[in-house]
Amino acid sequence: MWPSIERLIQSQASAEAFIFEGCALRPEYIHAHLGPFVKGVCLTADPDFISNRIRTASSYGSLDEVHQRIVAGIVNRSVRDGREQESRAHAFGLPCIRVDESGVLDQFKSNFLADTSSTNLS
Q1: In the structure, how many helices (H) and strands (E) does the chain have?
Q2: pLDDT for 51-60, tens place per residue?
Q3: Residues 97, 104: contact at Cβ < 8 Å?
Q4: Please, which residues have CB within 8 angstroms of residue 31's CB and are 6 or more apart in sequence?
Q5: Within 10 A of 80 (CB to CB), how many other CB atoms are there?
Q6: Which has the closest alpha carbon to 13: 82, 28, 88, 32?
Q7: pLDDT at 11
Q8: What is the pLDDT of residue 104?
């Protein structure tokens, strides 16, 4: 999957502002593409926030035991991956934004939009 994403990043690197989002955009892959027209950020959250969000979305309380174990595995994997992503983001100098903290993500969006509107990206 990464080679396709990398081609998209390279093709858009000097075009208008765009956002790629997803867990495949690992810091160790994207850091080489960062520059004046390509920025990176790692969205993070407290493990309890992640767990509660997944359990709520899956209606965990109404699931049978087998399906609860499946959801528990997804929660564990998501928490572990989030910690790893955050650690690697720090290692590669990418900023991390806590999406579970009130107003932090909104402030980032405002700053991002202000930066892209004041910069000629074409």
Answers
A1: 5, 2
A2: 999 999 999 9
A3: yes
A4: 40, 92, 93, 94
A5: 11
A6: 32
A7: 79
A8: 82
Q: Per the structure block, which two tokens stand in for 39? A: 């920025």
Give the position of tokens 């892209």: 116
Name the more confident of 119 and 66: 66
Phi-psi category of 17—alpha, beta or left, where left has phi over 0 and alpha has psi -120 to 50? beta
In percent, the amount of the chain with pLDDT more than 70 equals: 89
Rounded Cα–Cα distance for residues 47 and 85 (Å): 13
Q: Return the exposure string of 85-113: e unless at least 16 CB atoms fall within 10 Å of the residue's CB, then b.
A: bbebbeebebeebeebeeeeeeebeeeee
Q: Give me the count of residues in the chain.
A: 122
- Full-model pTM: 0.74
